[in-house]
Design a protein that fits this description.
Elements: H1 3-10, E1 16-19, E2 23-30, E3 33-34, E4 39-41, E5 44-50, H2 59-68, H3 72-90, E6 95-97, E7 101-105, E8 111-115, E9 131-132, H4 160-214, E10 244-252, H5 255-267, E11 273-274, E12 283-290, H6 293-306, E13 312-316
Antiparallel strand pairs: 1-2, 2-5, 3-4, 4-9, 6-7, 7-8, 10-12, 10-13, 11-12
Helix pairs in contact: 2-3
Length: 317
């Protein structure tokens, strides 16, 4: 079974690929970069490893079952067998995952992950590679001025002093135009990358919700349950009179689970509330809801890159 190859394929589609009872490979988007030496780097994704995320989410097992034409239970048993082999080998050697990275134990017997960085898992950058732009600027050749008569400078149309001032003005104009072009490139490039990042995050979250919809679970025989429905004031907050931008912490089938998540977020200091429900009927718990898109994006970056928590952006129209 080519489990390492399947992990690499899934990292193109998902931000998190969990290996049950072992850990999870995560991808973090990186914006395009231009250095002062003319080096251009396209948008990419940085791969990391978290040994605390060990709960099976079904993504890897379903993919293996599909590739190997096996049942889900059989695929899960094969993954568990491979994980036991990895743990045994990790005590004495380095585990290599082609295209992803290497895992080994340091002197303190803690897991250390080293990404290879040779594969770009950002699908929107397909075909884009690093390149170094060589400068086309040529040093102008200073013309030699030959004096025919020692004291005849007053009769010349262009004197050396005037020519030197003209060259300085040209260089200043070229510098101003270059700065303006660079500023325009930086602004529109940053705006484009931001929009692409938000679109990718929303697409990833929608894919996770579709996986939840497609998953089947054997719950046995359920007894008859009688329930009374009453109005809940927290649901009234979802009625929108204008456009909002929410930072979603998670989606839940049960409104009770969504409210428990909101309560936990409020205890952490967030102005949490319910966001707009999905088309599949899932209830979304949000870190906060804003009328300003800029404020929502600032909170998203703070949660993902400072708190290292999972969240995604939702445009409620």
């Amino acid at each position: 079974m080519h489990l390492t190859q399947y992990i690499q394929e899934l990292l193109y589609k998902y931000e998190c690929v969990t290996i049950p009872d072992f850990g999870a490979f995560l991808t973090r988007p990186l914006a395009a970069k231009v250095t002062g030496f003319g080096e251009f780097y396209p948008p990419s994704k940085e791969v990391t490893f978290n040994q605390l995320l060990t709960t099976n989410d079904g993504i890897l097992a379903h993919f293996v079952a599909q590739k190997e034409m096996l049942s889900y239970e059989h695929a899960l048993r094969l993954i568990q067998k491979e994980v036991r082999n990895w743990k045994k080998r990790l005590k004495t050697q380095t585990l290599r995952y082609p295209g992803v990275g290497e895992i080994h134990l340091n002197l303190n017997k803690n897991i250390t992950f080293i990404p290879w960085g040779k594969v770009n898992f950002e699908t929107s950058s397909f075909g884009l590679t690093f390149f170094n732009r060589k400068s086309n600027y040529k040093i102008p050749i200073q013309p030699k001025i030959v004096s025919l008569m020692e004291n005849s400078n007053d009769d010349l149309m262009f004197t050396p002093e005037k020519e030197k001032k003209s060259q300085l003005l040209r260089y200043a104009a070229i510098g101003i135009i270059g700065i303006a072009l660079f500023a325009s490139f930086y602004y529109f490039g940053d705006q484009y990358v931001t929009e692409k990042r938000l679109a990718a995050q929303e697409e990833a979250q929608q894919q996770i919700e579709r996986n939840v919809q497609e998953a089947t679970f054997d719950l046995g025989t359920l007894s008859k349950i009688e329930a009374s429905i009453t109005s809940d004031p927290i649901l009234s907050e979802v009625i929108l009179d204008q456009n909002f931008y929410s930072i979603v912490a998670g989606s839940f089938r049960s409104i009770e689970n969504a409210k428990r998540k909101i309560k936990a977020l409020k205890e952490e200091g967030f102005a949490a509330e319910l966001a707009q429900s999905s088309s599949e009927g899932l209830f979304r718990a949000a870190y906060g809801k804003f009328s300003s898109k800029k404020e929502a994006i600032n909170l998203l970056y703070y949660i993902k890159y400072t708190l290292k928590e999972e969240a995604w952006y939702l445009d409620e129209r």
